[in-house]
Amino acid sequence: MKPFAYERATDPGAAATLVADSTEAVYLAGGTNLVDLMKLGVTEPTLLVDITRLPYDTIEHRPDGGVLIGALVPGSRLAGDLGVRERFPALAEALLSGASGQLRTVATTGGNLLQRTRCVYFQDVTKPCNKRRPETGCSAVQGLHRDLAVLGTSDFCLAGHPSDMAVAMAALDAVVHLRRVNGSPRAVPLNDFYLLPGDTPHRETVLQPGDLITGVELPPPPEGAAMSYRKVRDRWSYAFALVSVAAVVATDADGTLREIRLGLGGVGTRPWRARETERLLTGREPTEERLREAARAEFASARPLPQNAFKIDLAVDVITAAVRDLVGRQRR
Amino acid sequence: MTTLQRTVGAEVTRVEGREKVTGAALYAYEYPVPDALYAWAVQSTVPRGTVRAVDPAAALSLPGVVAVLDSRNVVRLRPTDTPELAVLQSPEVAYRGQIVAAVVADTFETARQAAAAVRVEYDVDDHDAELTDGDPRIFVPDTVNGGYPGHTETGDVEAALAAAPVVLDATYTTPPEHTATMEPHATIAVWDGDTLTLYNGDQGPWMTAARVAELFGLPEGAVRIVADHTGGGFGSKAIPRPPTVLAALAARAVGRPVKVAATRQQMFTMVSYRTPTRQRIRLGAERDGRLTAIWHDALQQSSTLTPYCEQTVTCTRVMYAARHRRTTHRLAQLDVPTPSWMRAPGEAPGMFALESAMDELAVELGMDPIDLRVANEPARDPETGHPFSSRNLVACLREGAARFGWAGRDPAPGRRREGRWLAGTGVAACNYPALTWPSTATARAEPGGGFTVRIAAADIGTGARTALTQVAADELGVAIDRVTLDIGRSAYGQAPWAGGSMGLSSWGWAVSKACRALVKRLDEVSGAIPPDGLEVRADTAEDVEARRAFSRHAYGAQFAEVRVDAVTGQVRVDRLLGMFAAGRVINPRTAGSQLRGGMCMGLSTALYENLETDPRFGDFANHDLATYHIAAHADVRDVQAHWLEEDDDELNPMGSKGIGELGIVGTAAAIANAVYHATGVRVRDLPITVERVRAGLPAGPPAGFSAGPSTR
Amino acid sequence: MRGAPPGARLWDVTAHAFHSDFALRVNGADRPLTLDHRVTLLDALREHLALTGAKKGCDHGQCGACTVLIDGERVNSCLVFAVAAQGRDITTIEGVAGLAAPEELHPLQRAFLDHDGFQCGYCTPGQICSAIGALTEAARGWPSHATADLAAGVGAPGELDADEIRERMSGNLCRCGAYPGIVAAIREVAGADGGGAPARAGAAGGAR
Predict the structure, then answer these.
(1) Number of independent structural domains in chain B
(2) Is pLDDT of C201 > 60?
(3) What's the pTM?
(4) Is residue C79 located within the same domain as residue C107?
């Protein structure tokens, strides 16, 4: 880790100016991933701008049922928030199934969105990685890729996005609020926030230098919707997802799916919105067979490798079970 | 001396417990040593080759960097039979992750930065880091770890298999695993002239001191080890590892104390891992279940540095009667880090295979797996012919079954559905040799009425300090609060390590003998204690040597109750129950923790632990605790350890057998057998991951299963 | 270490340093320090303040051995730069007994002894600090992944069942496998006083 300067920002404008001025300056919020990566030598900033004292730490429930979550709200407080638990239980479940109690007390909402992949090669500076160092090659294709993505991958990178929270937010049609360097606000739907790796896997989001995430807005969920977050992992806690499914389901009285939104974790290079599955199911009766077919259709473009091919069947099973369960809950 | 209630057998609270719960207990890296510098290892980034050049310039230019060490500027060590300890002695690289240079700096942060700035150039050779059967370099070692023969054979196993009415032939694999002690290996090295003090996380202070002295060409006693508390060892701290040697070399080079702490990432290549195994087991049986043939073959790996081969098939030599038997270790030396001891080396992977095979055979025979084991109970050690000093395997199976609720178990697999779960139970047997090594100890009567007992033992969490205090108090006939039991210093004299589950048996004998001698001596002087105290020293070398030929082992049986998520294949271990027979238990409180802890680690190896060999690079792709999973709180539910009263006069004065390793042996098989019972899926490759379970489940989740929250 | 780093730009030449003078408030006392910004809170405690109770197990937030309380919340001190912890109230294992004054030991420390909730002891300070934080969270009614009804949350800490404790404590690995004793110890304390003693540490803004 190189020496770095440290500044505690007292207002967003000063913070943004400092960060925009240097490619080697970064914002420091909870630090749970940044400090980790700095120790590994993956990230080598020379200036940390501590933004934890900026005023983005509130949870505002809107009269329409939506919510604006400040970027600095830690996961523990967000998952503990009664309004979130009542109206966005999939988000609370996702948060509670991620990391550990002591990580969640510090890890912020904005930082969670910007988590870097846990691909072992990205984290090991002695091995090639296109994401960490462009055009050095991808070690995972021939190496360990069991935990990596099958959707959205390229020949350059198959690193998965590790966040649980963002998967739930993807299903909840979240909008990321930014403050540009010039002070102007910008709102980006979360599903447009992340870039696919393509041939530039080091570029992960639409953020421009100095952009500061100020919050995440969740619109009110569909009327009468039920939702859940289901995560499959190697141990029963404190592990990243092999596959996770955030499902938001609203049915009509006749049992057809009026609205369905699915976020997938563990399978995509970004928090994955299962648009194809949604398209095939919307307005249809969710029979077992149709659910499975629709779930499988999402993976038509998947590029599985030997170690992670199991994720496709696993995801199909979990999507099917999760939606079936929510539909059942709606009927009750 | 008044008559007191004996403390052996009592639930005495750990004597160092208060220090541990208040944070006062000092571990190696935490001793306040003034003026210490920080060393940081630079590791090889190639798996095989020669260091052509080390460019220290960038590192040396950083303020605070005192030295950059490589093979050209550190002291020469003596030749060693443990070649991975020849740190920085040559430019040859034998594995990726080997120490090829090191930085010494005034702060931890600068040392880390400077290590990253050292430029190392290599001449790279081709490498082969992948264990494959059929590799022409595979050989059968004459002896394996522990001094056991590499190969044994009785009768004609092939003919017996050909003639057997029922034959089981299956191959099992276990992956490389890592001890992953919570305390990474750490050392502070302090030279004073030609004496060296090492504050070291250590399982065997005296043995470490002797080995380091040998390496540095120093006389016996010139190296002092201080290891009051050690944050877990599991074999990895039984001998010094490269970080310890690096600390001593660096401190010598810069003339100041030096601290070294392996990072968690470095641990996976610098410190011992368990070899992967590929084991083929063939069993021949009569229809009534009696075994006629046992053939256990185990392929393992070591580095090119040393042919370390662990004793994977030795349990099989002891467990079951059969006239025809063959057991073989095979070894391939690859361009990989050197494997070494991890809790129950050999026995743990070996018994996963054997006890899985016994379960498969029971299924094949339509026999209860307990009855099958009972039917093959030998009267004498099946290979050596020695009588058993004691053997209560059958009693453990029967009593364990009663406590677990085994009776009435429907053996059919995949029949018990509870919501989305498939439930099942499994059993496996375990054994571990009851080893004892010579040891010395001193016992001293203090003028104030207290007693001080000193022995170069180590308490790595076993409870040894407490148990030895109890042994001493009973022999002295005093309350335990009058006994100060000092351990953790090599200066206390020859003593073995906390390893091979031999610690308490060996140390306790010496403590017992010293205390008895002191009592006798006190009688001789009518209790008159001189002003500087009265001290006696005991050495058990002759006593241990004089023991008669017996087959000495602890035995046990583990029972597992599991649920498997039929949607995902995730395995939940709801209950583990171990029933053990291990001689006399000195302290039920700490013994219970040892046995349960071993079972937890067994659960962890059954379901989670998997170092992924990275053949292209020659190391392990996963090398931290986020990607090398060990069992967490949520994975460990109801775990019980019970034991039978067992009197065995052929062991040691305490009548105890070691229990540090017994708990892990067998547990993985019990869980795998339960997974089979739950699902009908036989997973022969550890760990039992979702994809391995799912590979055997019918496609798609059964209708009517609900997803629900995943924790319960 | 003052001065410009290699490749420095205008801003760092003029205004920035790589170390700072500041104080950390630890176990109720202000401790002045001059530290390289790279020093984590964990290393500040262990290397600069002689408080070695918090342990370094992985240095990456993957084991929990370094857990301390910051403003009453459990935190992995290995992932916090010390300079960023100024102004916070830090409680380490050496100070937790003070949270439950006038007890000589914190009730959790005593319960860990009584239930043999440790073996090698290396993860123990982190387990105890984490348990204090976990009971504080439960006292607020916060659910966990093991909570049946997220909206309802949990009642008093004393109502937490073993699976709740296990889930909440899963950020603290124990390689010795002392988990059963740890869970028993925490349940006893949670039940005995409704988590009252730990909860006193829980109000945001002050561990004392």
Answers:
(1) 3
(2) no
(3) 0.96
(4) no
B535 is an active site residue = no
B partners (3+ CB pairs within 8 A) are: A, C
Taking the CA of residue B8 and the nearest CA in chain A, the distance in Å comes to 39
pLDDT tens profile B447-498: 999 999 999 999 999 999 999 999 999 999 999 999 999 999 999 999 999 9
Supply φ then ψ for residue B281, to 5 degrees: -120, 130
Query: Do B45 and B112 have their domain in common?
Result: yes
Record: contact A93-C145, CB cut-off 8 A: yes
Radius of gyration of chain A from its Cα atoms, rounded to whole angstroms: 20
Same domain, C90 and C110: no
Q: Verify that B531 and B616 share a domain, yes or no.
A: no
**Does the beta-carbon distance from A18 to C153 stay under 8 Å?**
no
Residue B572 and residue B540 in one domain: no
C-beta atoms of A231 and B572 within 8 A: no
pLDDT digits (tens, 9 = 90+) for B268-306: 999 989 999 999 999 999 999 999 999 999 999 999 999
The reply to whether C115 and C192 lie within a common domain is yes
**B113, B568, B574, B630: which to substitute to probe chain A, counting the most A Cβ within 10 Å?**
B568
Q: Chain C neighbours among B 570-609 (CB < 8 Å)?
A: 589-590, 592-594, 596-601, 604
Domains of chain A: 5-50 (3.30.43.10), 226-331 (3.30.390.50)
In a domain, B57, yes or no: yes
Nearest to C76 by CA among A107, A116, B180, A7: A107
Q: How many Å lie between the alpha carbon of B595 and the closest alpha carbon of chain C? A: 9
Residue from B11, B20, B234, B604 to probe the interface with C (highest C Cβ count within 10 Å): B20
Cβ contacts of B415 within 8 Å, gap of 6 or more: none
d(CA A251, CA A324): 11
Separation between Cα atoms, residue C178 and residue B122, nearest integer Å? 45
Strand partners, B578: B558, B641
Task: Pick the last residue of a domain from B223, B247, B270.
Answer: B270
Does B12 reside within a domain? no
Is C80 found in the same domain as C33? yes
B258 and C CB contact within 8 Å: no
Chain C CB within 8 Å of residue B531 CB: no
Position A74, amino acid: P
pLDDT for A8 equals: 95
Residue C208 resides in a domain: no
- Tally of residues, chain A: 332
- Residue C89 sits in the same domain as residue C150: no
Residue-wise pLDDT for C78-89, tens only, equals 999 999 999 999
Domain membership of residue C90 (yes or no) is yes
**CB of C154 less than 8 A from some CB of B:** no
Is C207 inside a domain boundary? Answer: no
Q: Crossing angle for the helix pair B667-679 and B588-607, nearest 10 degrees?
A: 50
Residue C10: inside a domain, yes or no?
no
Return the HEC string of B151-179.
Answer: EEEECCHHHHHHHCCEEEEEEEEECCEEC
Kindly state whether residues B524 and B422 are assigned to the same domain: no
* Cα of C33 to nearest chain B Cα, Å: 15
How many whole angstroms separate alpha carbon B377 and alpha carbon B394? Answer: 8
Chains with 3 or more CB pairs closer than 8 angstroms to C?
A: A, B
Say whether both C87 and C41 belong to one domain.
Answer: yes
Residues 6+ apart with CB under 8 A from C95: C26, C27, C28
Residue B222 domain boundaries: 31-126+183-231+237-270
* Same domain for B190 and B249: yes
Domain carrying residue C136: 102-199
ipTM: 0.97
